[in-house]
Amino acid sequence: MEKIEDTLTVPIQLTDELRKLASQAGTYRQECGELMTKAESLGKLVRLIARGSNGDSLCMRPMRRIIPELEKSLNKALILVRKCRSTSVVQRVMTILSASDFKRVNHLLDNAIADITWLLNISGAGNGKFELTGLPPIASSEPMMSLFWENIAILERGTEEQKEDAASSLGLLARDNDRLRRTIVEEGAVIPLVKVLGEGTPKAKEAAALALRCMAKDADIVKQMIADGIAPAFVKVLINAPMRLQIEVTRTLCEVVDIDPSQQDTFMEHQAIRPLVGLLGESLEEPEKMQEAFAIDKIVTTMAANKIAHDEISDCIRTATSGGTNRHPQMVPKPGSAGKPNVAYRAGLVQGRPVADHGRGLSQRELSRREREGESAEVKAELKAEVARALCLLVKGNSQTSRSVTETKALLCFATLMDKWKGAVRFNSMLAVAEIAAVAEADVELRRAAFKTTSPAARAVVEQLLRLAEASDEPSLQIPSIHAIGCLSRTFPARETRVVKPLVRQLESPTDGVAAAAVVALEKFACTENFLHKEHSQAIVEAGGAPHIVQIIYFGENRAKVAAAALMCYLALHVGESEALALAEPLPALKGFSKSLSVMQYPYLEKLLPQAMARLQIFQDKGTGSHTDISLDF
């Protein structure tokens, strides 16, 4: 980018030339004298900009519009003044000058003076005082530009109250108008908003976060916002800030990632995962099963810590009592602490008595903790809901971020929130688990690491998914839970019959979406790609799933029909000899489905259906015949 000094070189030269030529005018001396006066004023103003020019003191965007217009005005004035140098009557007749020409050029120079004066005022580069002086001539055709520039200048140089108002104004302007939103970002509003987010008052920070959220409505804008540094600023807020501000920032993060999923990696690179998980698990108690799982580790760790602390305290007491003139503070156990390491305190010994601790005031961390504890339950729930939504968007379709999330205590937190909390907190937590499960379905390493059967966190999550899939009467919770169980189908051993039975029961759900989700999930259990497909297929048939699958093939909606037909094909191939399967009479259903147009849209069914029908023909003709004989005898 061109330096400011280089940008101002040409205007300074033009003002000097205009002043010199105007002083040498042979005709229209009075009019040229007025131009010379304006040239002197412009020269002083431009030099004032040059002397105070640095990246912090000038509003760069308006300046880069004002300077080119100034050059155009000065060139027009120079053309006019050059025609006034000759005193010849013939030359005067040939040039054909009039008073209106000077009036027009004077007006242009007056506008230039007003523009530069306005620029100096909002930049505080003139007398060092920040001032707003109304609409500059440069923005007469686009009045909104002046409003943008002034609000951006306020964000950079105004008082804290002014910054809050300016951020709110920019947010309102950007909220409902795509063109204004794009223009605000192009004019450089993001960087000062990020600065306010990091250094302003709590109210100003919230207003800045809201303004940034209103701007994040387009992928190109989001990329510009990322380039302007919103990611590290957001992470800083997530690490340590009031809850209400963290809510606004998390919402903005959700908007950014939702609009442009490619920013998932950006936020992971800036270490956003762990602060989010920390907020998710704040003030949560671990489930009892997790406490049991970690009990041995805690006991071992505590015993080791107690031994080390006991040895250190004994040494400190021995040193304090043996050296009577020792004036240095020592580590001694607090009375009544029984030597516990977490209740030791530093004390000096004066005449055999411990003196008070140094610095009785509360630390900043303690004050922040108390402030957070004092927030209402609604605010805490709102924060957890937004954090869960942010994690859901960050892991969606991304193996790397999903792995980063599962390496923390996030799964345990999700299980607890799905169990103990209601509303948006539970819903968003369940969606996040469903997204992680969807990624794990295609990522073998993630599936083995995060959802191994010996993992207490994974077991807790699966228990909550099963509970929501079966016990919940809300399809919005049931459907994603069932999808998640289906995605994890390859992680369940053959003995886990408790997983298949709840899904089979959902096949007769009156809600089409729930039944369809159950069919899709069971298909993943029975498909050939599942190593335990035979065992799972047997479990589905034994749980009474075959008749319901046949009914869905006949009467279900299109997607459910396709999944049910595929599931029945797998059952026929894997447990085609089953009497329970024969009683459901799946062969006529598959024959009817094979004649539908749906088969043509799914090439894998064209190969699967003939194999399944042939196998059913082999094993179930006998079963069908005996069934007919019994009916006739009866």
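[next item in queue]
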Amino acid sequence: MPDGPAAASLPWLVPPAYDASAASLAAHSEAIGEVMAGRARLWLGPFPAPDRLPAGLEDTALVVPTSGSTGTAKAVALGLAALRVSQDATAQLFAADGTAPDSRGHGFWLPLLPPTHIAGVQVLARAHRTGQVLGLPGPALPDPLPDLRGHFDAAAFVELAGPVLEQAERAGLPAMTSLVPTQLTRIVTGATGDDARARGLLKRFAAVLVGGAATSTDVLARARGQRIPVRTTYGSSETAGGCVYDRRPLPGVSLSVLDPDESGAGRLRISSPTLALGYLTEGGGTDGGVFAGASPSADWPAADAAVSGAVVSCESADRAFLTSDLAEIGDDGALTVLGRADDVINTGGRKVLPQDVERAIDRSLMLRGLVRTSVVVGVPDPEWGQRVEALVTLEEGTDPAEASALVRSALRTTEVPAHMIPKRVHVVEELPLLGIGKVDRAAARRLAGG
């Protein structure tokens, strides 16, 4: 993409609202292809595109919404260089670790996520990048593209995955896909014949990315035990998608913790050439938000330079993104995300990380096969300020009337302190989710009565 005024003169593409049909997916893929070729910019923001971009954001190639887990959308402006470096860093990892050594780390992608958020956009963009780097006549995508309307389950996956694996084999490329934890959980834990067939197909993929939210340790263990090549990812719109794979930063990404406490936990800070240019506000304004340092400078990779697939070391980038996540970084460099700083529950002056309670529920042997998923929230309490409550979904056959007693009793047998045990446990059919499969904690608080 050209720099400065030339980039700002490129047209905005605004596809019709995504409806999960094959035609709609194709329209978004075509628009993403134009962006990847440097011929246009793509607007997927939560408000209309401004007539003019503010200073410092002229090189914007893609605008996507982001909502964290609060449900309040913002517009994130990303440059083409950041998108390409992100894609090439993933490919560099996959080439080096044996996932896709014969295709320079690039693959044939089955898109199963909506192309309205960064994760779904990057699946399509990676397929276009495969075509660019390997000199293919088009993107490495299924023909025809899948129709994703309707409920995602094992039967739907079997119908889609079989033909895709055949097409990938004919193209001489490793098959890859990306799922949210809910999709992976349905396939891994299902007991039908379709579930078994889906697992058999999924393990034929070279890489199955899973992100957007924390994945149950039990589900990950079962998936890997079934020889499904799951790769956990961590990232956000602000980092052009996943920048940490299997708890390790991608090439060119640097992680640090701001103001760590005695245990080493603190706000996670990310330095990377994949960072967004910044935030856009309605009406054409900008919000620097939690980005620190100068805007991308001339030593960042230009779009044309990035075509070679090189990953620029983050030592050449002086910008950083301060996330809302509390994290620890081990001596081996492995990242452990503990939860969001703004999710912390203050009950009677004691702080509770909801994710600590959720992990205890997930790991409890007493609840294995009884509780499927959980989310823990704080709701207002006149005496304690906030009280801890939980929403759970149950496995088939579990008596909802016994769920609260089961969860509370199970947690009492763990190291979870009494003040962290939910005062109430609400049984729901499904946890409230945002569009990318992330738990909507604001909606969960409302359901719990907060």
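[queue empty]
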